[in-house]
Amino acid sequence: MSRPTPTTRSTAPAQGVTERAAWKALAEHYQAVRGLHLRQLFADDPRRGERLTAEAAGIYLDYSKNRITDETIRLLVGLAEECDLRERITAMFRGERINVTEKRAVLHTALRAPETERIVVDGIDIVPGVHAVLNRMAAFSRQVRSGAWRGYTGKRIRNIINIGIGGSDLGPVMAYEALRYYSQRDMTFRFVSNVDGTDFEETTRDLDPEETLFIICSKTFTTLETLTNAHPARAWSLRKLGDERAVRRHFVAVSTNADGVAAFGIDTANMFGFWDWVGGRYSMDSAIGLSTMIAIGPENFRALLAGFHAMDRHFRSAPFEQNLPVLMGMLAVWNSNFLDAQTVAVLPYEQYLKRFPAYLQQLTMESNGKHVTLDGTRVAWQTGPIYWGEPGTNGQHSFYQLIHQGTKIVPCDFIGFCQALNPIANQHDLLMSNLFAQTEALAFGKTEDEIKDEGTPEWLAPHRAFEGNRPSNTLLIERLTPETLGALVALYEHSVFTQGTIWNIDSFDQWGVELGKVLAQRTIPELESTGEPQLEHDSSTNALIRRYRGLKNGRP
Ligand code: F6P
To answer: What is the pTM of this model?
Structure first.
């Protein structure tokens, strides 16, 4: 079988990234700087904390607390250039089929392009179609928000339940939680994703079907979990509403697959479409964001898109040395491939961003968790790190111990806002003082001598000492708004792209999710069979299935 070749013409020779001159220079540079401590770097340059910063689209990035020098940045930028990052960015924005294994364009940036822009894919300008869907979403959202869209029995819709999984869930949940402050408060927004019946049951138990609208979100409309959950949703509605015709008032779909939607029994007049050039994990600003738009209103949704677009423009045009996504992406490469960090902790000091780390996990790990290059060669370097995290102060009383004193390097992204959305007494200052304190403690630590000088006995001093020199970025934003959320998400999207470009992998496919799906399909009948199915798995899986079958109905 012939291998697909990237459509972007590369000026650089096809070679492993570790063979590149810029990589080798970085490896050599790492040996020179690995012994440096952030304490020394800050002492040597009193302006470091102001210099090693960049700002765009309302986001201020302080990257000075990374284990880098000016030379590191110069070399990282050199690597980005040698890997043709500029050309790759242009290719993505132009709609070239840079998702080579699925032979698709990657155009989530078109979802937030202004109406005046032209983006041509296969000879067709796609921007008018994007705005047509946005306008339909806006009209529908206004109807639901105002109460003009009534349920089948004439009651106002008060509850929205989004059924979807992966990108059809994580983006909508994260955006709803993040922008809850701006949401219509007399409505309830909930999300069902897990095929575990508990998710559906607990989500709906206190709701009235007459007042509930389901949004069935699935790019492919073939996803087992989503289609499975859509069935009890329909049954739950009809149990009370009693008439098939009620489905039209209580179910809408978001998908690229009109046939699948129709086959499921949802009127395609109630469908909001998008396109195969939008990846699931890059889709929260497409029609997949319908629940977000109903929650915050069309104007706020447009502001969200404007924030995305502001970061897109910055990514596309700013010099790499001042380019936030490029800097963050290249620092992630530095930390992963040279400092050998395996993970990145994302630590929002903002309760509304409590689902942001979960959202980022799909964005980063489904994108860059790859083991072969674009042409299918096994990589000989580390690719995507593990992203994880929790809202900041909660993490401080849980896993920060390991970040401060453990044996692993955990680069951290701290995210904070200058203005509180819910000011209560001095709580926002308390919150932010913790953020600033943590970045300081991680970078500078406290030596054993300092500890002993404070009167700590000799034997206890090593336990109380902090080595410091733990890298972090700080993202400081004036206020959490739809615009700044859009810019923040786009920042991570493009940082992921930057990393994937350096590692020469396809950041837009996800073949790694397939095998488990196929094996589950084969296993379902084995669990459901009333006879004694012939099990042909390995001995572990066979024994587990037998035990499950034996105990699932309470039989020994
Ligand atoms: O299985 C992974 C995945 O394909 C994700 O990439 C995607 O976001 C999710 O499943 C849901 O897919 P869909 O929107 O097609 O239901």
So the answer is: 0.96
